[in-house]
Amino acid sequence: LEKMTDLVAVWEVALSDGVHKIEFEHGTTSGKRVVYVDGKEEIRREWMFKLVGKETFTVGATKTKAAINIDAVSGFAYEYTLEINGKSLKQYIENRLKTTNTWILNLGGTDYRIVLEKDTMDVWCNGQKMETAGEFVEDGTETHFTVADHSCCIKAVSSGKRKEGIIHTLIVDNSEIPEAVE
């Protein structure tokens, strides 16, 4: 593996199927642009005479759209910004906090990252979309699934407050798991 001498930016992006590392090399003398996702080369361009512009690619199992914008700041200084699904990384993260819940737990010595996509009620565990069974209960809904022979349930209950909306709680083997902050 050749040493990344022109590495100018590294981002970590939390998607439903996991946290992905995006690295960008920009050779301002050679005109080289290389995008790596999780250590794998996605784009390589040599001898680009235009040093500013945009590189688009996808990330993760869900093929989420991503783009790196290259802008000249002054002289030979450049600014690199990452967009996910057409939003700046900051906007994407803020939106994601509203549309997903994430829990990190350890079962039998193995770490699991469970993500609930609130709009679709899809549940992801360590990069895999889970088979789930939903049911209506007296105070809301329950979404049942299994992780490593452990019974899991995400309870959705109204907070009774309009601003708060629905509260989602993960219960594994009858124990409540605190939500992770990514």
From TrEMBL:
<comment type="function">
    <text>Plays a role as an inducible effector molecule that mediates Fas resistance produced by surface Ig engagement in B cells.</text>
</comment>
<keyword id="KW-0963">Cytoplasm</keyword>
<keyword id="KW-0053">Apoptosis</keyword>
<dbReference type="InterPro" id="IPR038513">
    <property type="entry name" value="FAIM1_dom_sf"/>
</dbReference>
<dbReference type="GO" id="GO:0005737">
    <property type="term" value="C:cytoplasm"/>
</dbReference>
<dbReference type="InterPro" id="IPR010695">
    <property type="entry name" value="FAIM1"/>
</dbReference>
<comment type="similarity">
    <text>Belongs to the FAIM1 family.</text>
</comment>
<dbReference type="GO" id="GO:1902042">
    <property type="term" value="P:negative regulation of extrinsic apoptotic signaling pathway via death domain receptors"/>
</dbReference>
<dbReference type="GO" id="GO:0006915">
    <property type="term" value="P:apoptotic process"/>
</dbReference>
<dbReference type="Pfam" id="PF06905">
    <property type="entry name" value="FAIM1"/>
</dbReference>
<protein>
    <recommendedName>
        <fullName>Fas apoptotic inhibitory molecule 1</fullName>
    </recommendedName>
</protein>
